[in-house]
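Protein folding task:
====================
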Amino acid sequence: MELFRKLILACLLCLLVEEQAPCMPSAPTINAQISVMVGGGRKPVILGSTNLPDGLEAVMTVYHGRRLMAEERVVIEEGNFQAGPFSDGGNPYPAGIYTMSLESEISQLQPEKVQAVIGHNGELLRGPLVGKHSLFHFERIVRLQLTVIIQ
């Protein structure tokens, strides 16, 4: 009975430690890097390259002020991604200042091959583009935000 109690206590302790600070000391970390180019004029297209793993899923959003103009799912393929061309109901965007954001999906929704590289909760992601998810604070995600002037 004492052995059983110790085993339960050890399992609970492991769960607490794993939730607070997941650790995979032998797994290499990845310093997330993304470079982008915006083209297409008033129907913008975002072309990007990254060192994030192929198959990583992310969402690109475009805002004009507080108005959501577009949202598109992107997948990293051979280190690259593309979003757009974006339009306003098929029409070119009006001139103005736009905020474009790329945010990775949470790790637990990523394909297994991606999780193997970034970790089950994104714990292997590093760098200035990496932060905590706004709802799932234990999740580390990649977020890039750009301000673009469309003329």
About this structure: The chain has one domain: 31-150. The chain has a mean pLDDT of 84. The longest strand covers residues 140-150. Residues 31-150 form a domain with the Immunoglobulin-like fold (CATH 2.60.40.1940).
